[in-house]
Amino acid sequence: MDPHFARYPFFDGARAAVGDADISPAELIAEDAPAVERGLERVERALMEGTVAPEDERRWTDREELLSYPIARILVSLVDTPAAVDKYAAAEAATAHDRLRADFESDDDGLQSTGTRPVSLNDVLREFDLSGDVRPERDGPDGSGGSSARRSGERRPSHYWVDVGAYLTLSTAEWGERWRLVNRELAAGDVRVTDEELRRLLEEAVRRRVAEGLPFSVRGSAAGEEIADALDDEVTALRNLLNDHDAAGRAEVDAVVPGLFPPCMKELVQRARSDESLPAHSEFSLVSFLVALGMDATEVTTLLGADGEAASRMETRVEYLADAEGAQFAPPSCASMQSYGDCVNRDERCETISHPLSYYAGALRDAGEVRDWREALS
Ligand code: SF4
After folding, report:
1. CA-CA distance, 295 to 280, in Å (whole number)?
2. Whole domain around residue 305: which residue ranges?
3. Each residue of 211-238: pLDDT tens digit?
4. To test ligand 1's pocket by mutation, which of 271, 359, 360, 364 has the most ligand atoms within 8 angstroms of CB?
5. Residue 146, exposed/middle/buried by CB under 10 A (0-12, 13-18, 19+)?
6. I need a surface site. Which of 62, 71, 205, 233 has the fewest CB within 10 A?
């Protein structure tokens, strides 16, 4: 099996690899195989934390990772709500985005961070039929070299030119003003994008591929009924997760008072404000916490003192986190924060709660009259 399929199970070739594994999802479920547990973790983490990366990378084999993907799709289909599909597809795409960045950097350095050849930009462009649509800047908008002109180990350019049709297909004005065509540099039918913006477009290509065909009908045959019955407990737990986080995330918090944030979030705010580039999981934790307080993109970037590329990235993240129906990704629990190494400076209140939002709700309640930080902005 190509080990890339464990990290990118939505690649076309991964479907054949699942077939070659010689065991059907129904058999995996009947056997309660490890891939079923990993599939459940995949969806749980997608709904709660916006990632499908495992808590413990070493726990699962490549085969289990690969087989967990069709199981996760079955689970999402059985949960059968638009929010579950949206959040699951977004989380698969966000995880792929992080992995692609790591792989591209390894490819630049000629290193093999995953013990196998990293996936290159050319591999991904080919996968999504974009090879003819993206050119590195060094070729210029009229260049004929194409992305395949770049050799492995050669440092990637900071900018690319993307065919306007592909750009318009993958981007949306909802991502913010800077993505609108009128605000872009255009030449010879190509749009100039940064390296990071190109990865954002690829993330969207992944999201669409993952969302395609979801949810599908699982029931409707004897085998389907059996699968659905066997996963009944898991599906109920996932539905409860979706319901819980809406209640936990917004019910008790109606003001933004940074001085009352839990210690972990104060630390992340301070690190972000000092221009540190936070790891993706830390930035997700912080931004999802702020979004759960009802902050919009401008408020988040203002509080964190972000500008330029960092501000754009955070704005995109805020839009991802708060969907059109107002349902939100819950910020990670204290247990997850601990596993990320982001639970720091614990105090007495930390001993009484299991979620940073509960900490903040309690601190707000105890503080009585408070002044909302946002009042100073108006
Ligand atoms: S215990 Fe929870 S609220 Fe307290 S610092 Fe750790 S993660 Fe934050």
Report:
1. 19
2. 252-377
3. 999 999 998 788 899 999 999 999 988 8
4. 359
5. middle
6. 233
